[in-house]
C-alpha cells in the first residue's frame, strides 16, 4: 500500500487510531481460561470469542478477568477499565431481566447513560448500549454464545467502523423463503453460495442461541424481517467482521 501511494506522489494520508476494546464476562457459573471456577458451571467461551472478533475487525483487544454476579464488583471493574482509556468496553452475560443480571445496575452506579436495553431481534434481544461519563462506549451482550456473537457483529462492530470513519455496513438483499417471526427480526445461520443465477442460501439446523456447532458450518447470516413487515426483503451478511483496516 505504501509503495502504491508513493508511486502516485502521495506523501501524506489521513489515518485513524485503532480503537482499544476491553472485554469481560460475568457469571458465578463460569470456568475461566486458567480452570478457575467461581461456582460449578460452564466454560467461558464468550469472552475469548469476542476478543477474537475484535482483533479480526482490526482493533486492539484486552481480555479482562471474569466477574461474579455482584453489582458492586462489576461497577468497580467498569470504572477501572474506563480509567485505562478503553474506547469501548464489552461485557457478556448479566444483561437480561433475571435476579442475577446486574450489569444494568452496575452501569447506573457508574453514572452511565443507557441508550437502549433490548432490541427487536432474535437471538440477542437483551443487548444493551450505554456510554460512561468520560465518553467510553459500553456494549452489554447476552450470555448465550450465539446471541453474544450477534450482539458484537451488528452493534459493537458498527461502532468500530464509525470510529475509524467507515460507512455503515450494507448487506445484500435476497429473495428466499424462511420462517419469519411475528414481531422481531430473526438472524439465521446459513451457508451461502454464489452462481451465475445469483446468491443462494442453505438454512442450517439447530438455530438455538446456545448452539455453537452451526457457526462452524455457516458462512453468513440471513436477517429475516418480521412477519408484520412483508415489504422488506431478507438480507445476507458475512458471518464475521470484514475488518476496519
Please describe what this structure looks like.
There is one protein chain. This protein is an alpha/beta fold and 245 residues long. It has 2 domains: 144 residues, 3-Layer(aba) Sandwich (Molybdenum Cofactor Biosythetic Enzyme, Chain A); 67 residues, Beta-clip. It is 25% helix and 26% strand. The protein contains 6 helices and 14 strands. The strands form 3 sheets. A 6-stranded mixed sheet has the order 4-1-5-9-8-6, sandwiched between helices. Strands 7, 10, 11, 12, 13 and 14 form a 6-stranded mixed sheet that branches. Strand 8 and strand 9 form a beta hairpin. Helix 2 packs parallel to helix 5 and helix 3 packs across helix 4. The longest helix has 19 residues. The radius of gyration is 19 Å and the shape is globular. The N and C termini lie close together (12 Å). The mean pLDDT is 89.
Q: Short description, anyone?
A:
With 245 residues, the chain is α/β, with parallel strands linked by helices.
Show the helix and strand layout:
Elements: H1 2-7, E1 20-25, E2 30-31, E3 42-43, H2 46-56, E4 60-63, H3 71-83, E5 88-92, H4 103-109, E6 113-117, E7 121-122, E8 128-131, E9 137-141, H5 145-163, E10 172-173, E11 185-195, E12 198-203, H6 213-217, E13 220-224, E14 235-238
Parallel strand pairs: 1-4, 1-5, 2-3, 5-9, 7-11
Antiparallel strand pairs: 6-8, 8-9, 10-14, 11-12, 11-13, 13-14
Amino acid at each position: 500500500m505504501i509503495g502504491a501511494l508513493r508511486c502516485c506522489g502521495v506523501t501524506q494520508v489521513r489515518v485513524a487510531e485503532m480503537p482499544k476494546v476491553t472485554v469481560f464476562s460475568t457469571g458465578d457459573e463460569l470456568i475461566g481460561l486458567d480452570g478457575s471456577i467461581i461456582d460449578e458451571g460452564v466454560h467461558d467461551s464468550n469472552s475469548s470469542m469476542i476478543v477474537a472478533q475484535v482483533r479480526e475487525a482490526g482493533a486492539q483487544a484486552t481480555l479482562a478477568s471474569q466477574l461474579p454476579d455482584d453489582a458492586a464488583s462489576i461497577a468497580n471493574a467498569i470504572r477501572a477499565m474506563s480509567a485505562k482509556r478503553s474506547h469501548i468496553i464489552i461485557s457478556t452475560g448479566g444483561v437480561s431481566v433475571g435476579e442475577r443480571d446486574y450489569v444494568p445496575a452496575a452501569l447506573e452506579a457508574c453514572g452511565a447513560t443507557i441508550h437502549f436495553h433490548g432490541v427487536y431481534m432474535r437471538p440477542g434481544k437483551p443487548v444493551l448500549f450505554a456510554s460512561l461519563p468520560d465518553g467510553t462506549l459500553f456494549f452489554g451482550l447476552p450470555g448465550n454464545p450465539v446471541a453474544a456473537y450477534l450482539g458484537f457483529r451488528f452493534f459493537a462492530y458498527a461502532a468500530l467502523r464509525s470510529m475509524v470513519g467507515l460507512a455503515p455496513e450494507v448487506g445484500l438483499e435476497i429473495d428466499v423463503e424462511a420462517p419469519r417471526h411475528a414481531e422481531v427480526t430473526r438472524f439465521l445461520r446459513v451457508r451461502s453460495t454464489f452462481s451465475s443465477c445469483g446468491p443462494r442460501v442453505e438454512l442450517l439446523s439447530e438455530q438455538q442461541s446456545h448452539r455453537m456447532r452451526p457457526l462452524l458450518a455457516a458462512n453468513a447470516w440471513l436477517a429475516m424481517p418480521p412477519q408484520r413487515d412483508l415489504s422488506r426483503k431478507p438480507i445476507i451478511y458475512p458471518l464475521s467482521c470484514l475488518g476496519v483496516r
